């Protein structure tokens, strides 16, 4: 079973503010003039407003659209409470994103007449818990790939049930891009092989897919076309180590000023380092992302010999990358990310006194921020940087 | 229009149904009767737990916050744009598509909002 909230951020804002109901709204970032639409209400969607569209474009399509600044605390609360609701029906609940979840109800289905009744009961619980505006769509299928495929098909507030009887018809009525895992790039590569429909993917020789995508991805694509998926629903207690941790920030105003860029890079580096310490990981590869006023991006990475989780060390690496880039364009967006992450428990304890002191200072600052709130203790030279909080992405903080 | 306010207020709460429901609050020496509890959520700032209540009267929406560490209520936001349309919400209609075709299932509104 795949559960997906409808226009999640927008419907939460409409639930929280009765006066926004029935009006076109778009939930975006802190800068409502330069940010993108994270979620549009169904009234806004009627005008053609879509997720990830710049807000100024949304305003052109729908002049009366209301821009709302996202509030991550509401969304993370609903996410965590939803996991509790789903936990009443099965212990196998896998959060897929802040507004999506997989449930394996194979063992608990016997307590309900049929899966539709179970889905209706979950919908009723969600309505009782959060109110009438927050709705979800549910896809029910024999495995994750089919449940995810059909959960979007009956939106909003829908239920779609795939059984062995209607599986083939369901698959054949799907577009290739409807499948989770087939994005733009894979679609283009499939098109180059002459595959534009699910039927063609079912019929193509598996060896051709192996040659183009390799054995594992080729096999997965072939299985996908027949609605076969052996992946299990991993319960929410199963915590994956992140592969990378990063933050980006659109500057309040485009700038050539290197000081402003550096301040924001230091602030982002500190945010990345704080999240790494929370996950108890250290990383070797530092990536810098810059976007100029013409929205052209620049990306560069550097791999250190030593793994780090210190904000200032990450910042120093971004300075090297900035120097290498010889960047002198008007800057609109800056981003820092760390990858090549390993568990900190695999790392040696720092022996040099200055390193050990840095570590102690970091721990003390983390304890203070845990007790009194984020940004209680920050490096002095980030005070003048834009105040980015990155709350939406930290939705699992208090899980 | 959204007005950001950070005034300390007094709130009368009802715990009859096993969950907190604000009845009215006093702001600038005026008692404001709450018609609806629209949304409730919690958040942390450090180790301080905040309870947020989005409530509305016939004409306005308010956001109230209770800091469980300092035991202080604050009025954070007032929204006075007016309602787009009456939202009755007496029942839900779900689209259900199964192998037997499309059906519509109508359910009655739950008796209590579970906060």
Could you walk me through the main structural features you see in this protein, from its secondary elements to its overall organization?
- The complex is a heterodimer of chains A (399) and B (115).
- Chain A has 399 residues and is α+β, with helices and mostly antiparallel strands.
- Chain A has three domains: 1-109 and 125-139, 3-Layer(aba) Sandwich (MutS, DNA mismatch repair protein, domain I); 169-225, DNA polymerase, domain 1; 244-386, 2-Layer Sandwich (Dna Ligase, domain 1).
- Chain A has 13 helices and twelve strands.
- Chain A has helices at residues 8-16, 42-45, 55-61, 72-87, 115-130, 144-151, 167-172, 184-192, 198-203, 206-225, 258-278, 311-325, 353-372, and strands spanning 2-5, 25-28, 39-40, 66-69, 93-97, 100-103, 136-140, 158-161, 244-255, 281-292, 297-308, 331-343.
- In chain A, a hairpin with a 2-residue loop joins strand 5 and strand 6.
- In chain A, helix 4 (72-87) packs antiparallel against helix 5 and helix 11 (258-278) crosses helix 12.
- The longest helix of chain A is centred in the last third of the chain and has 21 residues, at 258-278.
- The relative contact order of chain A is 0.10.
- Chain B has 115 residues and is mostly beta strands.
- Chain B is 0% helix and 64% strand.
- Chain B has no helices and nine strands.
- Chain B has strands at residues 2-14, 21-27, 30-33, 36-45, 48-56, 61-67, 72-79, 91-98, 101-108.
- A seven-stranded antiparallel beta sheet of chain B has the order 3-2-1-7-6-5-4, with no helix packed on it. A two-stranded antiparallel ribbon of chain B has the order 8-9.
- In chain B, a hairpin with a 4-residue loop joins strand 5 and strand 6 (61-67).
- The model of chain B is unreliable at 85-93 and 106-115 (pLDDT under 50).
- Chain A binds chain B through residues 12, 15-23, 73-74, 76-78, 116, 120, 123-124, 127-133, 135, 153-154, 157-161, 163, 165-166, 369-374, 376, 397-398, and chain B through 36, 38-39, 41-48, 52, 54, 56, 60-61, 63, 79-85, 87, 89, 92-99, 105, 107, 109-110, 112-115.
């Amino acid at each position: 079973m795949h559960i997906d909230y409808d226009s999640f951020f927008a419907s939460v804002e409409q639930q929280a503010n009765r006066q926004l109901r029935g009006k076109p709204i778009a939930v975006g970032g802190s800068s409502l003039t330069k940010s993108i639409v994270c979620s549009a209400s169904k009234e806004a969607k009627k005008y053609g407003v879509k997720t990830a569209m710049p807000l100024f474009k949304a305003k052109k399509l729908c002049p009366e659209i209301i821009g709302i600044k996202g509030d991550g605390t509401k969304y993370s609360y609903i996410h965590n409470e939803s996991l509790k609701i789903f936990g009443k029906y099965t212990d196998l609940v896998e959060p897929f994103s802040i507004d999506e979840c997989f449930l394996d109800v194979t063992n608990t289905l016997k307590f309900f007449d049929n899966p539709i009744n179970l889905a209706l009961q979950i919908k009723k619980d969600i309505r009782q818990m959060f109110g009438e505006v927050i709705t979800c769509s549910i896809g029910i299928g024999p495995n994750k790939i089919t449940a995810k495929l059909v959960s979007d098909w009956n939106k909003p507030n829908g239920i779609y049930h795939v059984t062995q009887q209607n599986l083939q018809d369901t698959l054949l009525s799907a577009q290739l891009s409807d499948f989770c895992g087939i994005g733009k790039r894979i679609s283009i590569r499939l098109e180059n092989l002459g595959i534009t429909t699910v039927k063609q993917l079912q019929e193509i020789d598996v060896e051709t897919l192996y040659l183009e995508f390799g054995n594992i991805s080729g096999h997965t694509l072939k299985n996908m076309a027949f609605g076969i998926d052996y992946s299990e629903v991993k319960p929410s207690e199963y915590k994956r180590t992140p592969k990378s941790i990063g933050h980006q920030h659109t500057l309040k105003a485009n700038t050539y000023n290197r000081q402003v860029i550096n301040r924001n890079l230091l602030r982002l580096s500190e945010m990345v380092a704080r999240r790494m310490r929370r996950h108890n990981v250290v990383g070797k590869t530092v990536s810098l992302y810059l976007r100029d006023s013409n929205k052209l991006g620049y990306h560069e990475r550097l791999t250190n010999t030593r793994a780090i989780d210190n904000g200032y060390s990450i910042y120093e690496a971004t300075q090297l990358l900035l120097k290498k880039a010889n960047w002198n364009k008007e800057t609109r967006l800056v981003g820092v990310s760390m990858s090549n992450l390993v568990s900190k428990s695999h790392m040696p304890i720092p022996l040099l006194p200055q390193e050990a002191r840095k570590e102690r200072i970091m721990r003390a600052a983390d304890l203070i921020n845990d007790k009194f709130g984020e940004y209680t203790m920050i490096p002095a030279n980030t005070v003048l940087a834009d105040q980015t909080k990155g709350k939406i992405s930290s939705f699992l903080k208090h899980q | 229009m959204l007005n950001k306010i950070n005034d300390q207020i007094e709130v009368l709460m009802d715990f009859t149904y096993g969950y907190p429901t604000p009845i009215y609050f006093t702001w600038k020496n005026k008692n404001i009767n709450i018609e609806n509890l629209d949304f409730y959520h919690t958040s942390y700032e450090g180790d301080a737990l905040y309870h947020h209540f989005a409530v509305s009267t016939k004409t306005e929406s308010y956001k109230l916050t209770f800091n469980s560490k300092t035991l202080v209520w604050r009025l954070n936001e007032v929204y006075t744009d007016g309602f787009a349309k009456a939202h009755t919400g007496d029942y839900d209609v779900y689209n259900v598509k199964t192998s037997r075709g499309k059906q519509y299932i109508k359910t009655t509104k739950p008796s209590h909002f579970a906060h």
